[in-house]
Amino acid sequence: MELKNMVALVSRTGRHMQRYNFLGHRQVVGCIPYRYKGNRGTPSVVDEEEIEVLVITSQRKGKGMLFPKGGWEIDESIEDAALRETVEEAGVVGDVERKLGKWNFKSKSSDTSYEGHMFPLLVKEQLEFWPEKDVRQRLWISVREARKVCQYWWMKEALELLVNRLAAQANEAKTDMKSNL
């Protein structure tokens, strides 16, 4: 699915295509868009100071920052849904990586239960125009700052899993390089 060609479209709306789990909880998916500072590729050692993440404003005024997420619909794979939501809400395109996990949570404003799935997205391109450009702001920030401003506990947990995964991958690559010498 080539999403860059679909950016001119408006965001999907309505719940008629929405997925629900066996408990009746709405399934939502999202991404933690990230990049390495200096755009110099993957560093050989990943310290969280090397990573920047993209957060967006909530559509509800004064409700804080979050990572892009939204409904997973019946006509798309989970990865396609995560990428679509990220393009719609944050205007970035990249590589959706292996899922970070699944969280069950309740809405802060109602008694609605959700099942949330989060993926890392290594950003390859930041779009100038995207469907929710006029209703959201996006901001590249440090991991430390994201821990402070992200409004959802489950997204903060996903962020920690991402940071740990990137550090472990860098350590594996370093070990592989030493063993090949």
UniProtKB/TrEMBL annotation:
A GO term from the CC aspect: nucleus
Cross-referenced Pfam families: NUDIX (PF00293)
Gene3D superfamilies: Nucleoside Triphosphate Pyrophosphohydrolase (3.90.79.10)
Classification via SUPFAM superfamilies: Nudix
Database matches in InterPro entries: DDP-like_NUDIX, NUDIX_hydrolase-like_dom_sf, NUDIX_hydrolase_CS, NUDIX_hydrolase_dom
Domain Nudix hydrolase, chain residue ranges per copy: 24-163
Gene Ontology molecular-function annotations: metal ion binding; pyrophosphatase activity
Cofactor(s) needed by this chain: Mg(2+); Mn(2+)
Keywords associated with the record: Hydrolase, Magnesium, Manganese, Metal-binding
Family per similarity comment: Belongs to the Nudix hydrolase family.
Name of the protein in its database record: Nudix hydrolase-like protein 17
Species of origin: Perilla frutescens var. hirtella (Perilla citriodora)
